[in-house]
Amino acid sequence: MPSHLPAAAAYPHPSVSAPAPGLPPRDPTLDLARVSITLLVIAHHAVLAYHPYAPPAGTFTRDSLIWGAFPVLDSARATGLDGFTLWNDTYFMAMMFLLSGLFVPSSLERKGAGAYVRDRLLRLGVPFVVASAILAPLAYLPAYWLRAEATGNPGFWNAWLALGVWPSGPAWFLWVLLGFGGIAAALHAVAPRVLAPLHRLGNACREHPVRACLLLGLGAVLVYLPIAQGVSPFTWFTWGPFTVQTSRIALYALYFAFGYALGTGGGLGALTAWLAPTAPLARRWWVWQTAAGLVFVGFVAAFITWLISAGKGTPAPIAGIASTVLFALTGAVTTFALLAGFARWSPRCRTPIAWLAPQAFGMYLLHYPIVTWLQYLLLPFPLPGLAKAAVVTTTAVLASWTTTAALRRLPGFARVL
Question: 20 to 30 A Cα–Cα from 414, which one of 22, 330, 395, 402?
Fold first, then answer.
C-alpha cells in the first residue's frame, strides 16, 4: 500500500558566520534549511484542521488514533491544502534527519563519543521528556473536548490513561534522532571502520550532486518499497511515549546515514563549500526545482490513479507500486532541490536567518499546543478555511518564536532550546 496521507575552527568562507567562543561556525545555508523546514512543519500542522479530505473525528481512544494527526477538525475546509500537505509528507521529516546527520561527524570528532551522547541526552532527551509529559497532553486536550461525547465523557485524564500509550506529538522525532545519534556514537567509539565507507561516500557525493541524489533516491526505494507493500502508512510503532511511523523508520535511518556521510571527510568546511552560492549545486538550482516538480507530478498522478482504482474496488498493484517508488524518489529529489535553493538564496536571507535560526529548535518543540489551541479557539468563527489556516500558521510562528526567545533568556534554557 502506498504510504502517503557543527569542526571547532572557523573556515575562511564568506558564508560562514563568526562563531561564538568554543562553538563551531554557523553556515547560513544550513541555518536557512533548518528555519525553512521548521516553518513548514508548523504550517503543515496548522492547516490539517482545514484539510479538504480530513477523516471523521472518531473517538478519543486507542482504536481511533487518527486524532493524533488531526486533533482539531473544522467544518471550514480549503481546497489545495491537500496538495501542500501531500508534498510536505514526501520529504520534510526525512530531510530533517538528513540535516541532523550532517553535524554528527564533526561533533563526534570534537567532543568524543561519551561527551557527544551526554550532550544529546541533554539537548534531545530532556526536551522529549518535557514535550511528552506536558506539551503533548496540553496539545491534545482540545482533541478530547471535541470527541468527549462520542468517547463517553470519562474525563480527559481518564481517557488519556486508558489509551495504554502516551502520545508525544511531533516530539517523536527527538527520541528517534537520539537513537540514531547513539548508534553513530557507539560505532565511532568501538567500530570506526564500519563508518569508513560513509567517509568515502561523502567525498564522492559532494563532488557529484546528481549522482548523490540518484544514490539517495535508489536507496530510498530499496529500503522503503518492501516495507510499504506490507505495512499500512497509518501503522505506528507505539510503546509508552515512544512512537514512530513503522513503514518509514528504515527510510529515516537512511537519510540520517546519508547526512552523516555528507558531513564527513573535511568537516563543516567541506560541507560549507558544497553548499556555497557559487558551487555546482547552487548554480543549477532551477534545474533541481524543475526536476523535483516533475517527479512530484508523476507521483501525484500515480497516487490518484491508485486511489481511484481502490475506490472502485479494482486492484491496481502497478499504480500502487509506481506511486510508492515515486514517493521515495520525490523525497530525494526535493531534498536536493531545496538544498540547492537554500544555497542559492541564503545570502539574501541573512536578516530573517539571524532572527529565526537560534529559535528554530524551540519553535519546533513548542508550536504544537499553540497550533491546536488556536484551531480550537477559531472553531466558532465563520471564516473560510484558507483564512483560518493563514491565521493559525502566522500566529503559531510568531507565538512559538517569541516564547522560545523569552525562554532562552532564562538561566539554563539556552542549553536545551
Answer: 395
DSSP symbol at 408: T
Instruction: Name the nearest CA neighbour of 328 among 234, 178, 227.
Output: 227
Residue 384 CA to residue 154 CA, distance in Å, equals 33
Dihedral (CA of 42, 43, 44, 47) sign: positive
Domain ranges of the chain: 28-415
Rounded CA separation 392/390 (Å) = 6
Cα-flanking dihedrals φ and ψ of residue 242, to 5°?
-90, 105
Please report the sign of the dihedral spanned by the C-alpha atoms of residue 335, residue 128, residue 172, residue 392.
Answer: negative
Summarised one tens digit per residue, pLDDT across range 200-238 is 888 888 889 999 999 999 999 999 999 998 888 778 888
The dihedral formed by the CA atoms of 344, 359, 263 and 28, expressed in degrees to the nearest 10? 30
403 CB burial (10 A radius; 0-12, 13-18, 19+): middle
Q: Model confidence at 22, in pLDDT bands (50, 70, 90)?
A: very low
Closest CA to 346 of 2, 4, 71, 14: 14
**CA 130/CA 153 separation, integer angstroms:** 27
More confident residue, 150 or 10: 150
| Pairing state between β 242-245 and 236-239 | antiparallel
Helix or strand (DSSP H, E) at 244: strand 242-245
Average pLDDT of span 316-331: 92
Please check whether residue 362 is in contact with residue 400, taking contact to mean a CB–CB distance below 8 angstroms.
yes
Q: What is the pLDDT of residues 374-391, one digit of tens each?
A: 999 999 999 999 999 999
Helix and strand totals (H; E) in the chain: 18, 2
